[in-house]
Write a structure and sequence with these properties.
The protein is α+β, with helices and mostly antiparallel strands. The protein has helices spanning about 10-15, 40-55, 55-65, 110-120, 130-135, 145-160, and strands at about 25-30, 35, 70-75, 80-90, 90-100. Helix 1 (about 10-15) packs antiparallel against helix 6 and helix 2 crosses helix 5.
C-alpha cells in the first residue's frame, strides 16, 4: 500500500461542499465566522443570524465543557446543524458546523407557520422573506447521513474514530 495522508478539516469541508446545498462553517471560540462554503451573503447571512438567534453558540460552549463528540442542534421544523468541536488541551478552539439541512421535506407554508411561531416567542427575523428563500434551497439529508458526515469531519479534526 502507498503512503496515506489524512485529509485536513478544510479539505473535508470542501469535499462535503460537493453535496448540493450542504454548507460548512468554521467559527473561532469567540463566535467569529472564519470560513464558510456558503456561496453568497444572501444565503449565509440569514442562516448565520438564525443560528445566533437560537443561541446555539452558548449551547455548544456549554456542551464542549464535558464533551468532544459531534453535537446535533435542531429546530422544530426538522432543520438541523451538526457542530464538530476542535479542542486544544480540553479547551474549545474552533467550531465546525455542517448544515443547516432538513431531515425531511418541508413545504413553504410549514416554514412560514413555524417562523411565525418563533416570532411569537420573541425571535426577530430581520428579513423573513430572505430566510424563507434560503431555506427553500436547502437539501433534505436524513439525520443518520448528516451524522455520518459529522463523524468523518470529527475524525479529520481529532484523528479519533467514534
Amino acid at each position: 500500500m502507498g503512503d496515506f495522508t489524512m485529509t485536513t478539516p478544510t479539505d473535508m469541508l470542501d469535499i462535503l461542499s460537493c453535496i448540493p446545498g450542504l454548507y460548512a462553517w468554521v467559527y473561532d471560540k469567540s463566535q467569529t465566522l472564519l470560513y464558510t462554503t456558503c456561496p453568497t451573503r444572501d444565503v449565509s447571512v440569514p442562516f448565520d443570524r438564525l443560528f445566533s438567534e437560537c443561541d446555539y453558540h452558548a449551547r455548544i460552549h456549554a456542551y464542549a465543557k464535558d464533551h468532544s463528540a459531534p453535537y446535533a442542534l435542531s429546530i422544530y421544523m426538522g432543520l438541523v446543524w451538526y457542530a464538530v468541536l476542535e479542542k486544544t488541551d480540553e479547551t474549545l478552539t474552533k467550531i465546525y458546523l455542517l448544515g443547516p439541512a432538513f431531515q425531511y421535506p418541508v413545504s413553504l407554508k410549514q416554514l412560514e407557520q413555524t417562523l411565525a411561531k418563533y416570532e411569537e416567542q420573541g425571535m426577530n427575523f430581520r428579513s423573513k422573506r430572505q430566510l424563507l428563500k434560503a431555506m427553500g434551497q436547502l437539501p433534505v439529508i436524513p439525520h443518520t447521513q448528516l451524522a455520518s458526515y459529522a463523524m468523518m469531519l470529527h475524525y479529520c479534526i481529532t484523528g479519533e474514530r467514534i
